[in-house]
Structure to design on (261 residues):
C-alpha cells in the first residue's frame, strides 16, 4: 500500500492490497477500495462507496458525492464500481436515491473519459465507454459494450441498449435500441452499429440478421406491433432479435425513430 502523506483517509475506509493513493486526496465514509487500484491526486471518494480491483482513478475525480436531486434526504445510498474501471480526470459519480435503486452501479471494464458524469441511480454496463463530457441524467441504464460520444446528454430514465453507439453532441430523450447507431440534437437512429459489432466479434451472418430485423422494425412502414409480430415468427429463438424485441416492448419513454422515418 502506498498512501501520500497529504491524503486524508477516514477511520471507516478499507483499502485493499497494493492500493495507491495520491496527494491531497480525501477518502471518507464507508468506502472500500479493491486490490491494486490506483488513485491519482486530489481525488474525493465519500459516502458508502465500493470500488473494485485494478481500477485507475485520475486526478480530480469525485465519487460517491450526494445526488443532485431536490428530494434526496440524506438516505445512506451508495456507489458500486466494478473491476478494471478507468475513471479519468474530473469524472463525477453520484450516489443513488430512495426514489429508485438506492445505488449507482458502474460495471467491470468501463471507461469514463474526462469530465463525464454519472448521476444518481444509473446503471452502466460492462465495457461501456463514455467519451469526454458525456452526461447521464438520473436513473439512466446503459447496456454493455455501448459507446456514448463526447458532449452528449442522456435524459433521466432513458435507456441505451447494449452494443449501441451514440454519436457526439447528441441529446438522448428516448430509448436507443440495442445494436443501433444514434445521433442528433434529438437523437435519431442511423442503422446498425456494424463496426462496433465487428469489434465485439459478431460474425457477418449474425450482423446480417440484426440488419434485417432493423429494417423490418424501422424502415418497413409497418406499425411497430406488426413489425414485432413478423420478427417473432421469422427469427424465432434468435437471441439477438429477442433482445431487440424485449428492449422495445419494455420501453417506458418510447424508442427513438430512424432518421429516414
Amino acid at each position: 500500500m502506498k498512501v501520500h502523506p497529504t491524503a486524508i483517509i477516514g477511520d471507516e475506509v478499507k483499502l485493499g492490497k497494493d492500493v495507491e493513493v495520491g496527494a491531497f486526496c480525501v477518502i471518507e465514509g464507508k468506502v472500500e477500495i479493491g486490490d491494486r487500484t490506483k488513485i491519482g491526486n486530489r481525488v474525493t471518494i465519500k459516502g458508502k462507496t465500493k470500488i473494485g480491483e485494478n481500477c485507475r482513478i485520475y486526478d480530480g475525480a469525485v465519487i460517491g458525492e450526494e445526488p443532485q436531486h431536490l428530494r434526496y434526504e440524506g438516505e445512506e445510498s451508495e456507489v458500486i464500481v466494478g473491476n478494471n474501471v478507468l475513471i479519468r480526470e474530473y469524472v463525477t459519480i453520484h450516489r443513488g436515491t430512495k426514489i429508485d435503486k438506492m445505488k449507482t452501479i458502474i460495471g467491470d471494464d468501463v471507461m469514463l473519459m474526462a469530465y463525464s458524469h454519472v448521476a444518481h441511480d444509473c446503471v452502466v454496463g460492462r465495457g461501456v465507454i463514455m467519451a469526454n463530457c458525456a452526461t447521464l441524467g438520473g436513473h439512466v441504464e446503459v447496456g454493455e459494450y455501448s459507446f456514448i460520444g463526447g458532449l452528449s446528454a442522456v435524459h433521466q430514465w432513458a435507456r441505451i441498449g447494449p452494443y449501441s453507439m451514440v454519436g457526439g453532441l447528441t441529446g438522448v430523450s428516448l430509448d436507443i435500441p440495442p445494436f443501433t447507431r444514434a445521433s442528433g440534437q434529438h437523437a435519431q437512429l442511423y442503422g446498425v452499429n456494424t463496426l462496433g459489432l465487428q469489434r465485439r466479434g459478431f460474425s457477418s451472418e449474425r450482423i446480417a440478421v440484426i440488419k434485417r430485423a432493423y429494417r423490418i422494425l424501422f424502415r418497413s412502414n409497418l406499425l411497430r406491433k406488426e413489425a414485432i409480430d413478423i420478427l417473432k415468427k421469422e427469427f424465432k429463438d434468435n437471441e439477438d432479435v429477442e433482445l431487440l424485441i424485449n428492449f422495445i416492448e419494455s420501453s417506458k419513454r418510447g424508442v427513438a425513430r430512424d432518421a429516414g422515418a
Observations:
- The chain has a mean pLDDT of 98.
- DSSP finds four helices and 28 strands in the chain.
